Amino acid sequence: MGNMPFSPIKIGSLELKNRFLMSAAVDGMAADPIARAQRYAELAAGGVGLIVAGRVLNKEVEFGRVADAVHERGGRIALQILSHMGLGFEPKVDSPAASVVPEGIDIFSNVFPYGRHHEASDGEIEDSIASLARAAKLAKSFGVDAIQVHSAHNSALFQFLTPLTNQRKDKWGGSIENRVRLHREVYKAVRSEIGSDIPLFIKLGVEDPFPNGLKLEEGIAAAKLLAECGYDAIEVSQGLQDFRDPKTMAGTPIRMGTVKMSQEGYFRAWCRDVKKAIDKPTIMTGGMRSFELVEEVLAGGETDMIGMCRPFVKEPGLVKRWEEGNRKKATCISCNKCGLGLMKGLPLACYVKEKWDLPLL
Ligand SMILES: Cc1cc2nc3c(=O)[nH]c(=O)nc-3n(C[C@H](O)[C@H](O)[C@H](O)COP(=O)(O)O)c2cc1C
Fold it and tell me: Is any ligand 1 atom within 6 A of the Cβ of residue 159?
């Protein structure tokens, strides 16, 4: 109880100066490491307590420059890592996935065809665990302050968690304990690679919007098991995304039109329930826009931290602005043109003024 937006928090051994986290976003800036470092430096100078950068590729050794730029401005940075397995990850390749999903089950809409895939063998699962451990080691070598494992949205780890895409009969499927086995093995492998001094966060989908998908009770049970197994903090989001309503993106974690306060914080109740069930810090993400709401959910003990993504793309200095007393809500209108820009091959930025046609996808 009684958390405040600008009070520090310790997660594992990491001290953060406030309760604001930039939620992961792929940045499309690998080709320009200098501009990239500047972009993250701006976020650090703008007061974000912890910046979570979206995945980077193995060859992007320049990422160390980003971590240095953030540290020089008193910021902290984490990297998100994700498994290469799963439906839809590389639709043109025959990918190992939790299970074979029969044609006709529309889990992503036709925007992200799930493509050729086969049920992953034990060996392929072990390879994936080992490659996540290597990714974490690489992230540590960049000098990041924390690592986040991606098990939300369409990620492979979430595909193992939801019974919709995991119909395995072996130790990786069936009960919720079995469906989080992969997450626990990833925890152990990553920890043995990076040691105990860097906190390991997980972004967890706790429900998905499909019939026969993951139900909230199971998502909460998973959160409990993962907190017990050692993950240091849980960012709460949704699982598989339903892209069938491109005008509102209502079935996705990047909902549009978060204009009124009542539309904000669309995963608030889920995060509050997870927070009640675990004794590790939580991050509430998804349409958080108003300082009043941030204060309310922190003060009410509904979460320990607040995650925002699109607002920081538009206003890297938002936290500083709020801290200095201008408490007007984030100016982001959740138009998703930041995502559309990425899909056009542009760097992560706010493109609200572009005259691009929506729907997004
Ligand atoms: C352009 C863009 C890229 C994103 N990339 C990722 C990603 O790589 N990993 C992830 O977990 N979430 C990703 N997200 C989702 C965000 O982290 C966040 O969960 C979501 O946008 C809701 O927060 P918001 O309403 O504050 O934007 C992305 C979102 C956007 C808009």
Answer: no
Please, what are the domains in the chain?
Answer: 9-343 (3.20.20.70)
pLDDT tens-place string over residues 284-315: 999 999 999 999 999 999 999 999 999 999 99
Of 11-25, 82-96, 265-279, the one with minimum mean pLDDT is: 82-96
- State if residue 99 touches ligand 1 by the CB under 6 angstroms criterion: no
Residue 20 pLDDT exceeds 80: yes
Q: Is 173 exposed, middle or buried (0-12, 13-18, 19+ CB in 10 A)?
A: middle
Q: Backbone phi, then psi, for 200, in 5-degree steps?
A: -115, 110
pLDDT attached to residue 333: 94
- Verify whether ligand 1 is closer than 6 Å to residue 339 (CB atom): yes
- Rounded CA-CA distance 142/160 in Å is 29
Looking at the CA of residue 348, tell me the nearest atom of ligand 1: 1
Atom of ligand 1 at shortest distance to CA of 153?
11
Question: Looking at this protein, which amino acid is placed at residue 184?
Answer: R
CA of 121 to the centre of ligand 1 (A): 30
pLDDT tens, residue by residue, 228-261: 999 999 999 999 998 888 889 999 999 998 778 8
The model carries a pTM of 0.97
Q: Where are the beta strands (DSSP E) in the chain?
A: 9-11, 14-16, 20-22, 50-53, 77-81, 95-97, 117-119, 146-151, 200-205, 233-237, 282-285, 305-308
